[in-house]
Amino acid sequence: MANQSATLDEVFHALADPTRRIVVSRLSRGQASVSELAEPFDMALPSFVQHIKVLERSGLVRTEKVGRVRICRMTADAMRTAEQWLADQRTFWERSLDDLEAHLAAGAAGGRTGRESRRSGGTSGE
């Protein structure tokens, strides 16, 4: 569990930056060299490489050197871990909101809220 938490922290940290999100989106269409990925950004290549390193540490991206070119590609495991965590959170909150909706509907159907009923002593016609 602690290892999964560390992975999630790294993934969300990596995805918190807009530059890295753009890189992930680009790599979802296929592999690319670091130079190709850096092209649209107005930053020095060493600065851009730091973004790639963060993505590598998170497990979202894997790089390999082919000759003089470093090729980047997406890896699915880290994203699956984050996706599962988000799905678990969504399930919890949907269930909680459904319970709240049912509770509010039951209160509306009874005509009184619990607080009004307690204030009047729970009797009607007083």
Please, could you describe this protein's structure?
By secondary structure, the chain is mostly helical. It has a domain at 2-78: Arc Repressor Mutant, subunit A. It is 66% helix and 11% strand. The chain is built from six helices and three strands, in the order ααβααββαα. It has helices at 2-15, 18-27, 34-38, 45-58, 77-110, 114-119; strands at 32-33, 61-66, 69-74. Strands 1-3-2 form a three-stranded antiparallel beta sheet. Strand 2 and strand 3 (69-74) form a beta hairpin. Helix 1 packs antiparallel against helix 4 and helix 1 packs across helix 5 (77-110). The longest helix has 34 residues, at 77-110. It is elongated and about 75 Å long. The protein starts with a helix and ends in a 7-residue tail after the last helix. The model has no long low-confidence stretch (mean pLDDT 86).
The CATH topology of the domain at 2-78, please?
Answer: Arc Repressor Mutant, subunit A
| Number of strand elements | 3
Sheet with most strands: strand arrangement? 1-3-2
Q: What is the percent of helical residues?
A: 55-70%
> Structural class, from helix and strand content?
mainly alpha
Distance between the termini: 57 Å
Major pleated sheet = 3 strands, antiparallel
Shape designation = elongated
What are its keywords?
mainly alpha; 126 residues; elongated; Arc Repressor Mutant, subunit A; 66% helix
What's the short story on this structure?
The chain has 6 helices and 3 strands, in the order ααβααββαα.
